[in-house]
Amino acid sequence: MNIRTKSIPSEFVFKVSGGVDYNTNNSTEGFFYSGGGDDWTGRDDGTRALSSVIQNNLDQAQADDGIEGSGTYPLTLAQRQQMLGSMFWDIGPDAKEVDPAFDIGATLGDRFVTDYGEIGFLSSISYANEWSVGEEQSGTNLGTVGCSDLPDEKTAGAKCFAQSFDGVETEQSVSWSGMFNVGYEYNSNHRLELTNVILHDMNDRVRVRDFVDVNETVFGVRELQRVDMLFEERRMTSSQIEGTHNFPELNFLYFDWYAGTSRANRQAPGGVSATYQITQQDGEFLSQQLQDVSATNVSRQYQSLRDVSDTWGWNAGYPINIDGVELEIKAGADFFEKARKAENITIQVPHRAIADDALVGDQIDEIFSSDALASDEFYASSTGAGILQSNMADGDEYAAGTKIDAYYLMADAFIDNTWRLSGGVRYEDFRQISVPFEAHANSFAVTTEEAADLAFMEDDFFPSLALTYIMDEEMQFRLNVSESAIRPDLRDVSTTFFIDPLTEFLVRGSPLLKSSKLTNVDFRWEWYREAGNNLSAALFYKDIENPIELVELGTVGGAAPNLLTANGESGELYGMEVEFLQDLSIIDKDLVDFFVTGNVTMSDSNVVIGAADDGVTSLFEEQLLDALNATSASNIVTNNERRLVGHSEWVLNLQMGYDSPNGEHSATLVYNAFGPRIIVPGTRGNQDAEEQTFHSVDFNYSYYPDFNTQIKLSLKNLLNEEKQITQEGLDLLREERGMEIGLSYSYNF
């Protein structure tokens, strides 16, 4: 992503803005909790954090003893009570009517002329606080076991989800950002800019859902409910200085450079997941308690991730004019370094360690109240043994790093104002490593030799060639051929599991993952007409070597499905795209202020995973066996050949707009849609899970009563569509989005 920020405004600017937003789903009552005192700022004040008393016990306990220890590190009842009581339990959740969303912002900037050049600055701040309530249905572990015992509306034919959820999700989102840019222009040929950005956002989610487990649920007798909470806080700070220098005295040689550093972190403290059992008789409610099954737990999760990135580079160009040819030679370099430290601590409170009478209740804050935890009667044993378990494994803490050194050389020639030929080559030296730590120990879980095997290093040349034919002032043709690479992210090569935010499947990477190499070809026709009207059409083709895909790993019992990031053997993507902008004066000259614009893409793709039973161990199978720590594994992939994950065969974006002649009114009606796309590849004979078409219709209207004021009305998701992922005719995920109504105001002083 290339973001270009403005540092020196053309004149003094001071702008304030604010808005409110309402979602129709918010008329439904949600469930939430009080949280910490700084939640409104998008930050946890330490309320949810892992307490020092637990951290100290984790640090002292041996890896094979876990948080409770054994003969080498015994704990007393008082110590266990102290650890359990140090956790944040004031979660409830309680019924809540949510507030409308709102946002505010301000921008300030100016330019100053001095005898030594011009200096300017531009600064901005923004804050938004949004609430949402919605219905959500989901399922996991598709199969045939227990389906006949479900009500007809819970199953489709012979298959069903072994676990399914249906209930209310309540979420608060807080985001704020700031920017301060300073620029200095000595003259039109020399310029310096300093850019500083901070981005911060928080999501706090509570879900109360009916839970069906085909192995445990008996409708009308014993039913289940799942309550979970997830708090995520993310922040990124970035600073970059760059310079641009032109030298007219050297035949307009130019040179630009940049250097930057950024810090990013993600904190997810104190996540909670609890399962309740509701006992009924003849369909009438009798009681509710934490599920009375020995293998169940209240799960607490504490996650942290910290990234440090540094980047710098330069570019230079030298123009050469020959008869009928404008030639420019360019060269440059980019350098990138990124280091990461991540930790995922899971602590479980087994239900079997809690006394039977203490399990009764329907509120987390009541069951785990301070009075209850301080009472000896809360614990199943006189010592409180087994009340805390650490589920942390080797690799749940890891350190990783990436380094890329890249250089390029290219030439750009403009011939007779008709042909433009541009080509060059880029060299990349790529290095990456992810090393797991032992659970509860500040030491690596691998030997030095094994760590060396985890290092991934490759270097390659990537050529490119572009040819443009300018037929006349309105029409031109472009042909581009290039090679590129898709590099695995740091988490893609880590053995640590993370939760996919859409499906909630557990996803892990592979240390054996390789980069994907692409050959790209596209041909484009462009027609630029009067009044900005235009039309273009393109054909494109991509050949992919070792495409990075997701495949499912085997799981045990009712565990959530595990997905592995792995390389397929080969892949390809091809299709066509049409893009246009046209005012409606072609229908009637009185409609000149109306316009339509949009693009449509029709494409297809194919990937071969390499899971065929042909007696040859493919790269994918090597990564699968490494992840399973096995020497052999049965082929569980349903479709060894299919479309690429996330690829839609068609994408449509249309917009109809109006701009009034006096500039006071502007309105757009926007329609976006995409074809079904694979989200989770099918295994064990089950078909692929696909996200279904989402038809989005939005309306925006802006009123400018004067040059300084804007009033904007926005209506989103007018069709009130739902997000839906289906597999074998069942809803893997169904989520209400609701219709949104927003009103904002801004004023330039």
Word description of this protein:
With 749 residues, the chain is mainly beta. The protein is built from six helices and 35 strands. The protein has a 22-stranded antiparallel β-barrel. A four-stranded mixed sheet has the order 18-19-23-22, covered by helices on one side. A hairpin with a 2-residue loop joins strand 33 (722-727) and strand 34. It is globular and about 95 Å long. The mean pLDDT is 90.
Write a brief caption for the model.
The chain is mainly beta and 749 residues long. The chain contains 6 helices and 35 strands. The model has no long low-confidence stretch (mean pLDDT 90).
Topology:
Elements: E1 13-23, E2 30-32, H1 52-60, H2 77-85, E3 94-96, E4 101-114, E5 117-143, E6 160-187, E7 190-213, E8 222-247, E9 253-281, E10 284-290, E11 297-322, E12 325-350, H3 364-367, H4 370-374, E13 389-390, E14 397-415, E15 419-436, H5 448-454, E16 456-470, E17 475-486, E18 498-499, E19 506-508, E20 516-528, E21 534-545, E22 548-553, E23 562-567, E24 570-583, E25 594-608, H6 619-628, E26 641-642, E27 650-659, E28 665-674, E29 677-680, E30 689-691, E31 696-706, E32 709-716, E33 722-727, E34 730-736, E35 740-748
Parallel strand pairs: 19-23
Antiparallel strand pairs: 1-4, 1-35, 2-3, 4-5, 5-6, 5-34, 6-7, 7-8, 8-9, 9-10, 9-11, 11-12, 12-13, 12-14, 14-15, 15-16, 16-17, 17-20, 18-19, 20-21, 21-24, 22-23, 24-25, 25-26, 25-27, 27-28, 28-31, 29-30, 30-33, 31-32, 32-35, 33-34
